[in-house]
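Dear colleague,

Thank you for sharing your sequence with our group. We've completed the structure prediction you requested, and as agreed, I am returning the results in plain text so they can be pasted directly into your records. Please verify that the sequence below matches your submission; if there's any discrepancy, let me know and we will rerun it promptly.
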Amino acid sequence: MQGNFTLAIPPRTVPFRHIFSHCLILALVAGLVLQGCSAVRLGYGNADSLARWWMDQYLDLSPEQDALSRERLARLFAWHRKTQLPDYVALLRQGKAFAAGQPTASDALVLGDNIIRRVRVFAEQATPDVADLLATLTPAQIDRMAARFADKNADLAKDMRLADGDAAQNKARYKRLLERAEYWLGDFSNEQESNLRRMVETQDPGGQFWFDERLRRQRELLDLMRQVQGERPPRERIIALLRDYAARFDLPADPARLARAQAMRRASAELTVAILAMATPVQREHARQKFDDLIHDFTELSQAG
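Please find the predicted structure tokens below.
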């Protein structure tokens, strides 16, 4: 998971993405947490239906697979509403305090780690159900998913301007960061925009690196799916394979790439702190209200049903 909590809403990839795989299922919930009240109210109440829609788009589910997904997703989100949403409220309160204070980059990294920990809780809960679905997939469905991945990757590479050099990538990254910063803090002044642009230009663009990590995760997932389809291992073996996939999902195993990923995460945390440092009192109040609205929504959702 790239970035940090306060400003780095995952770019264009969070909502309903990779929903049937455990760490990927969690992206749905993480996206709702980070995108605001309307997404929470509209998205969370229909999360199981939206997840099934996503799965059908990528896999063309059979009637039997659709029935299995309907049952398991309803159960999963019922569990999540009851046990996890109250914890998300606590996490949002941490985010509110972070945005209101004078945090350090280490504070931002800790908050990011707290998000990832909750991602893993959700992922572990989903793993047995994901295993049961993987056991039913056909070669044609896996090929369909690979083709969908390729299409989405081409669109993302274009949006990130990966073929246009570092300057173009920085420009695209600046645009994304400004959009996220203004979501949380409200409109930026010309001076703030100029400062943000300079900050972005001094950092490693990182676009190609994170894009390559995305490709790695997709390759490993497709390999896992093909292994399950070809070998038809017992359920416990599939669960073990999924847990191993989750364990290496966040960061690369290669030491050199791991060091670069950690350095870029640190730089992202430093950027978040720098953006907060130039926020005005009015902008901080805007952020406070955003967090309060989310806390209210998640509290109500956790108590419903």
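Summary note from our side: Residues 1-37 have pLDDT under 50 and may be disordered.

Kind regards,
the structure core
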